[in-house]
Amino acid sequence: MRITVPDGPLDAVDLDAVDLRDPVFHATGDPHAVWRAMRAKSPVHRQELPDGRSFLSVTRHADVGAVLRDHRRFTSRRGTLLSILGEADPAGDKMMAASDPPIHTAMREPLAKVLSYGALRARQPDIRLVVRRLLAPVADGGPWDLAEAVAGFPMAFTGALMGLPERDWPYLTELTTMAIAPEDASFVDGAGHGNLVTAHHELFEYFAQRIQSRTHRDDLIGFLARMQLGERRMRLDEIVYNCYSLLLGANVTTPHAIAATVLAFVENPDQYARIGDDPDAVADAVEEGLRWSSPANHFMRYAVADTELGGVPVRAGEALVTWLGSANRDERVFTDPYRFDVARQPNRHLAFGLGPHYCVGAPLARIALRLFFGELVALASGFELAGPVEHLSSNFTAGIRRMPITVRLREHAAATLRDAGGDPIPSDPILSD
Ligand code: HEM
Question: Which parts pass through the membrane (predicted)?
Fold first, then answer.
């Protein structure tokens, strides 16, 4: 998604002509200008589609928080992504992300324990090794496509945690991107809905086979397979949906947080220079990068009964789409919201959501992002763009698919990188429960 700093008059945007569902608009249009106008003039804004479906766009921080926090008024059971607006989600009540408490809680509590900071601490050296290997090509000094290079990064921490073999990582990275950007030009036939169906089918089939082949041992899939839901074990379809959700949750977000943050550094070299080698400063910069990029662009809920939001009546069964990228620029919450400020305090961003569905992978994502930027800061004194930036056509992932850059290396960095290039990617299991 294009990240802009809108500065024209609010009236320049015709809110009734805007189509926030259009994936291409997020790659080539100006969503930030639209959201700024919506927050000011129509913070809960109804969009009608030509086929009769409609949804409410929720753009203010407080309203987004009110929706995400309140599962009794706003359910996840009918699906949470605009791509299936109006359709019943087959994963409803089976996948953590598409369920409400108490079913949701029964799945989430055990998973949250194995994905906590404490449980993941021992993984850090492995992830650091992966980062070093990933960064090794910059030693050559030539243009390096950062967006392409980091696209597969989550496989090395989430895929590895799930015990997925390294030979499958590129295939799974491709499929998860296709699931959230089926209309993107990189999927050449441009089949849109067809691509979505294909991606879902192949991913579900892949996980079903892995679960049934019982090759998993002490990994996250094994953990899910042994998990109790009340009196019973999880069923195959429930394990498949949750595997899908975990991998998707990691793959289609983390790389884009990295790319958009580095692009912000290209545009704001003074902010990059401020980080230095202080781990706390790196952690703060990661949070600002999350606010700035808001890689998970929206989540949807349905109103359980007639209600109201921000004074706007909401009918039972209506879909509400919370735009996290907009909430994270709300001038009511963030001072100077369009300034990229690596030391921003406080930083109450909603990039990981809020309430019962608050990202269960947030500790893992934060660990991976802090390690990535810690290594990057140690190696690179700055960056320049080496070609055009291409944005992903997706209304769900605010993403970058190509971003060639050149990296200015610090003294001695080239030798360190060359050494790291030979390290193997760790692939051993992982979890004890
Ligand atoms: C920068 C990286 C990430 C961002 C921005 C992000 C964002 C989000 C957001 C906004 C939600 C809330 C969904 C809702 O309210 O319906 C969420 C939930 C979720 N995320 Fe993440 N995520 C990231 C990384 C990860 C990782 C690494 C994993 C896997 C380990 C993951 C797995 C999930 C799952 C399974 C849920 C559903 C949680 C639930 O329903 O309780 N995410 N994520």
Answer: none
Homologous superfamily (CATH) of 10-420 is Cytochrome P450 (1.10.630.10)
Compute CA distances 33 → 57, 306, 337, 413, whole Å.
Answer: 14, 30, 13, 40
For the chain, which residues make up each domain, given as ranges? 10-420
Three-state SS for 274?
helix
Which value, to the nearest 10 degrees, does the dihedral of the CA atoms of residues 19, 22, 23, 28 take? -60
Between the CA of 417 and the centroid of ligand 1 the distance, in Å, is 31
Interval between CA 362 and ligand 1 midpoint (Å): 7
CB 347 within 8 A of CB 229: no
Per-residue pLDDT 10s for the chain (433 aa) are: 999 999 989 999 999 999 999 999 999 999 999 999 999 999 999 999 999 999 999 999 999 999 999 999 999 999 999 999 999 999 999 999 999 999 999 999 999 999 999 999 999 999 999 999 999 999 888 899 999 999 999 999 999 999 999 999 999 999 999 998 888 877 765 566 778 888 999 999 999 999 988 766 789 999 999 999 989 999 999 999 999 999 999 999 999 999 999 999 999 999 999 998 788 999 999 999 999 999 999 999 999 999 999 999 999 999 999 999 999 999 999 999 999 999 999 999 999 999 999 999 999 999 999 999 999 999 999 999 999 999 999 999 999 999 999 999 998 777 766 666 545 444 433 343 3
Which of ligand 1's atoms lies nearest the C-alpha of 356?
A: 41
Asked whether 1 and 253 are in contact (CB, 8 A), the reply is: no
The response to whether residue 359 sits with its C-beta less than 6 Å from ligand 1 reads yes
